[in-house]
Design goal:
Elements: H1 2-11, H2 15-21, H3 23-38, H4 44-89, H5 102-115, H6 117-136, H7 142-195
Length: 196
């Protein structure tokens, strides 16, 4: 709930925090698998590992969505420039807003995601590389530290893969649905405005 509130304050809408929060169950998948593999019971140490995983998973989701948003804004600026050129040539009446097509949205999603593969991979690799020695340690206190590290190691693998493959597609589909909804609202409003 705290992560969601912070995300809402950052993005200023509900769609993006909800999409980012999907990365947390993605991380849970790998964390649960690794805990099952090591035959660890659920304990306070495992719960602490899952809490840490939730924060890192949300960070990766924010990284991906932020660069998709940057790419969407770049395409909008490009289309806005084309619209202004048409207006200066007298080809348009100036009442159109910049609306992206479904293909342009998905193009921005793929371009923004591919732009951030390196950053997401480095974040995940550095986290896992730092936790591998903890997972392999046999000294005093290793029973507790392994239980903290296990959810994070397993979760970082799945959250990375799923945040780069599934999360952008879900975000693209949500943006397409929002654009269609805005278009239908606009088309419903325009005839009413003409009547009055």
């Amino acid at each position: 709930l705290t992560i969601f509130l912070l995300l809402y304050l950052h993005f200023r809408n509900l769609l993006e925090p909800l999409i980012v929060m999907l990365s947390i169950p993605f991380g849970l998948i790998g964390g649960v698998w690794l805990i099952y593999w090591y035959e660890f019971n659920l304990s306070v140490a495992v719960a602490v590992g899952f809490i840490a995983l939730a924060g890192v998973g949300a960070e990766i989701g924010v990284l991906v969505l932020t660069f998709i948003d940057h790419e969407l804004e770049r395409i909008r600026r490009s289309k806005r420039g084309e619209l202004e050129t048409q207006l200066s040539q007298g080809d348009d009446d100036g009442t159109q807003d910049v609306v992206l097509t479904d293909q342009e949205i998905m193009q921005a999603v793929f371009a923004g995601t591919s732009e951030r593969v390196r950053a997401v991979a480095m974040t995940s690799t550095s986290t896992v590389a730092g936790l591998i020695p903890i997972m392999l340690s046999q000294g005093t206190g290793s029973e507790v530290t392994q239980r903290i590290a296990a959810p994070m190691v397993g979760g970082m693998v799945t959250v990375t893969v799923l945040s780069l493959l599934v999360l952008p597609v879900i975000y693209g589909l949500a943006l397409q649905a929002a654009t269609r909804l805005r278009k239908s609202d606009t088309s419903v409003m325009q005839p009413a405005e003409r009547v009055s």
